[in-house]
């Protein structure tokens, strides 16, 4: 039986480039000796994305559409696509064509050679601004020095994942989803291909620096407890120094008496320790907030409507069924 490939495409306000996207991707898919489907997730777009996707679905039933009830963010949109995809392998790809679909045949070839994961790594970040390059480099350095598993640098979500990787990914229902980390966590034979990432072919990026900062925090906190350890060790060091200093003060007072002095050092110590404590209460708070979010156990996304999934029976959908998701 021919295998099936699923392309997973999260889309948020991408009306401007949807046509380009399909015009470039579909011929490549047609040339593969595989069956295929394209699972598009309209992540609460407020432009014409929904309507355009509906038209493309009508033109070709292999283009399937999931409309989410609102904007959930790329990671969750991708999860929705992953849950409903039925391919033997999936490839998440950005709608803006920054991930060149021309790499797909090569990925499929490596999959055929037995690799479960084929990462597409950016060989350079020339198309990025200086700040973005530097912050990205810093991010990978930090996360890879603390994370429980190595996260490949400069790999986006663009990669091929085999059926068994998808199965594991579907079983991870955490609400804080750092996809790159989850992909890497699963393991299995992995290989890499390199490519040059182009600037967006149209539209604008949805990732402000604030959003990227939060994304970085998400990654570090979801995949590492090192920040908590830093708190413990720093606490240990400062407490030890504090005791030593107290010893010195007591001895000095006993020998030289107690003229009222030392207001500046007192103030410095109070403010320093106050500050350190507040910072680490914040760090602990970040972890507690995530526990709080996880125990609520809310769904990762809410589906408004779907097109093209008629063949799916309610059991086969990872975690959710069309009825659950409000399928009319
Ligand atoms: N995206 C999404 N939901 C969001 C933000 C982005 O589905 O809330 C999609 C977007 O449509 C695109 C992909 O995620 O297909 C990558 O987004 P973008 O190109 O803005 O990110 P960048 O390439 O700048 O990292
Ligand atoms: Mg992009």
What does this structure look like?
This protein is of the alpha/beta class. The protein contains ten helices and eight strands. An eight-stranded mixed β-sheet has the order 7-5-6-4-1-2-3-8, with helices on both faces. Helix 1 links the parallel strand 1 and strand 2 (35-42). Helix 1 (15-31) packs parallel to helix 2 (49-59) and helix 5 (130-146) packs parallel to helix 8. The radius of gyration is 25 Å and the shape is elongated. Residues 313-328 have low confidence and may be disordered. Magnesium ion binds next to loops.
List the helices and strands and how they pair.
Elements: E1 4-11, H1 15-31, E2 35-42, H2 49-59, E3 63-68, H3 74-84, E4 89-92, H4 104-112, E5 117-124, H5 130-146, E6 155-162, H6 163-171, H7 179-186, E7 190-196, H8 209-223, H9 226-256, H10 263-296, E8 303-307
Parallel strand pairs: 1-2, 1-4, 2-3, 5-7
Antiparallel strand pairs: 3-8, 4-6, 5-6
Helix pairs in contact: 1-2, 5-8, 9-10
The chain binds uridine-5'-diphosphate and magnesium ion.
Number of helices: 10
Query: Mind describing the biggest β-sheet?
Result: 8 strands, mixed
User: In which order are the strands of the major sheet placed?
Assistant: 7-5-6-4-1-2-3-8
- Are there runs of 5+ residues with pLDDT below 50, and where? 313-328
Distance between the termini: 32 Å
List how many beta strands DSSP finds: 8
Bound molecules: uridine-5'-diphosphate, magnesium ion
The helix fraction, in percent, is 40-55%
**Order of helices and strands, N to C?**
EHEHEHEHEHEHHEHHHE
Overall pLDDT metric? 84
| Shape descriptor | elongated
Question: Which structural class best describes the helix and strand composition?
Answer: alpha/beta
